[in-house]
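User: quick one - fold this with fe (ii) ion bound?
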Amino acid sequence: MWQYEKKLQYPVNIKNPNPKYAKIIISQYGGPDGELGASMRYLTQRYGTPYNEVKGLLTDIGTEELAHMEMVCAMVYQLTRNLTPEQIKAAGFDTYFVDHTASVYPIAASGLPWRAEYIQSKGDIIADLHEDMGAEQKARVTYDNLIRLIDDPDILDPLKFLRQREIVHYQRFGEALGITTDKLNSKNFYACNPNFDKGCGK
Ligand SMILES: [Fe+2]
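Assistant: Sure. Structure tokens for the protein plus fe (ii) ion:
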């Protein structure tokens, strides 16, 4: 169950619309390393996770990624408000506009629509956590690239917040991998045969 709070995790207040920036920022909504895929990845993987601590972590981070998706969508929305046909054409936003008007639709910066393949859920906790750590680094690089290309401080401020959260998620998945390997190893430490192993069961 989720409870909806009517405020963004971090404020987005963009004064100047800029459809050129909207066209690249939208990749963090519907692109291969975007927030929609991240959220669905973790909220899907949690079902096959054998350890409650890791299951809880996947649920927490998957939920936070939904909040990040909301921030990215708010940025795209604010950047495409009240555009004239001239502004749309001048920014090269016409190719998006003709299909979606100013709706926030999940596509990559390249124009490729969001795909379920971005989720990745293997049903093996070691494979999934390695996938998740890689995914967080790729999301961090995408924010790095956006920060390199954008010069509006109203946009850079929330982008830097989102970039920082990817680093935190990467670290938390690293901790989850440590918890998981400890638990897997513990079976080897404590599995013993009382007929042969002295002190077994003590
Ligand atoms: Fe993340």
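One thing worth noting: Residues 19-183 form a domain with the Ferritin fold (CATH 1.20.1260.10).
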